[in-house]
Design a protein that fits this description.
- With 326 residues, the chain is of the alpha/beta class.
- It contains eleven helices and twelve strands.
- It has two domains: 2-59, Alpha-Beta Plaits; 86-318, TIM Barrel (Alpha-Beta Barrel), CATH 3.20.20.
- It has helices at 11-20, 43-51, 97-109, 134-147, 161-166, 181-188, 204-217, 244-251, 260-264, 270-279, 306-318; strands at residues 2-5, 26-28, 33-35, 55-59, 86-90, 114-116, 150-154, 170-173, 194-197, 222-226, 256-258, 284-288.
- Helix 3 (97-109) packs parallel to helix 4.
- The longest helix is centred in the middle third of the chain and has 14 residues, at 134-147.
- The chain is elongated, with a radius of gyration of 22 Å.
Length: 326
């Protein structure tokens, strides 16, 4: 961003309040110009720059995603009816209709409103369980309909992608698919809200551009989901980037969720990370749970049992950070 000032004497004053807001700038042309190298400036600061009488004009110096940033859109379609934060829970993979139905019954009793569950699973190993595919999507939809829930699942580039998406209320793009831009265009063309997980090592800028692909292709809204990133020495499975929460809230009008299950990798860490995410301002959580984690076909170590999920929901509610959806 390049700021042109009416008087060079105004530069120290403007630099001072920019610094207080966490934004660094450089003086050019004897102080008549201020150059801000960071391409992502919160919209409220842009308004303040534009309103300052000493500012003659402000020019963008970076190519920025237009559809995803607050500077391009003030209001966004919100895919979550009722009050937020929202908790979306369910098994990593839909192992059977019995598992889906039992889980949906619990979520309904907790008034959580949404259920997640995997159909096709993108796994690191080709020998790991890959999911039951379209049949699992049918189990998920039937269980959600029986118990008055909305359905969330990841879609992959499979022949039945469109058919599975028809059964979902919110389509998920997994972390491993975030950089597949042709796939993002296909998902956006489904014209359904999309939950976009951050890539394993994706920068915030890459994450925003991935959302831009979805919106540009026709997705009515995007839900960002921080699920932990790879760092040189992760304490557990991944490092949960809590700083991403206020960043997304500042930069976009779209919700930011956190998936503590994939970041933690083991159940003892899921609840602390969940509460930390809500305290940092997350609009909701994506939690893995299973009626019998020891028998789960995938990600058994990070799946909460029903007692643990019930306790987490109640603790969050007691903190005033989680309100049930209708």
């Amino acid at each position: 961003m390049l700021i042109t000032l009416s008087e060079h004497s105004e530069a120290p004053r403007i630099q001072s309040w920019l610094i207080r807001e966490g934004v660094a700038s450089r003086l050019l042309d004897g102080g008549r110009l201020l150059l801000v190298d960071d391409p992502f400036i919160p919209h409220h600061l842009l308004r303040r720059v534009d309103a300052d009488p000493a500012v003659l004009r402000r020019e963008d110096t970076h190519d920025l995603p237009r559809r995803v940033l607050r500077s391009g859109i003030e209001e966004a379609e919100w895919p979550f009816p009722g009050r937020i934060p929202t908790l979306i829970a369910g098994p990593c993979s839909i192992d059977s209709f019995a598992v889906a139905d039992e889980t949906a019954h619990l979520l309904s009793s907790l008034q959580l409103g949404w259920m997640r569950g995997g159909t096709h699973k993108a796994r690191t190993s080709p020998y790991a369980f890959q999911g039951h595919g379209f049949r699992a999507a049918e189990w998920l939809r039937e269980a959600c309909d029986r118990h008055g829930l909305r359905a969330v699942s990841e879609v992959l580039d499979t022949p039945d992608m469109e058919a599975i998406a028809e059964l979902l209320d919110l389509v998920q793009v997994g972390a491993r698919q975030m950089h597949s831009f042709r796939f993002l265009q296909r998902v956006g063309a489904l014209e359904k809200p999309v939950l976009l997980k951050r890539g394993l090592s994706a920068t915030p800028e890459e994450w925003l551009w991935a959302a831009e692909y979805l919106l540009d292709a026709g997705a009515p809204s995007v839900v960002f989901c921080e699920r932990g990133i790879r760092t040189p020495a992760p304490l557990k499975r991944f490092t949960l980037d809590l700083q991403a929460i206020p960043f997304i809230r500042e930069m976009t009008p779209y919700p930011i969720f956190v998936d503590p299950s994939h970041a933690a990798g083991t159940t003892p860490y899921v609840a602390p990370l969940s509460l930390a995410a809500l305290a940092a301002g997350a609009h909701g959580l994506l939690i893995e749970c299973h009626p019998d984690p020891a028998k789960a076909c995938s990600d058994a170590l990070q799946a909460l049992d029903f007692d643990a999920l019930t306790d987490l929901a109640r603790r969050a509610q007691c903190l005033g950070k989680l309100e049930v959806t209708p």
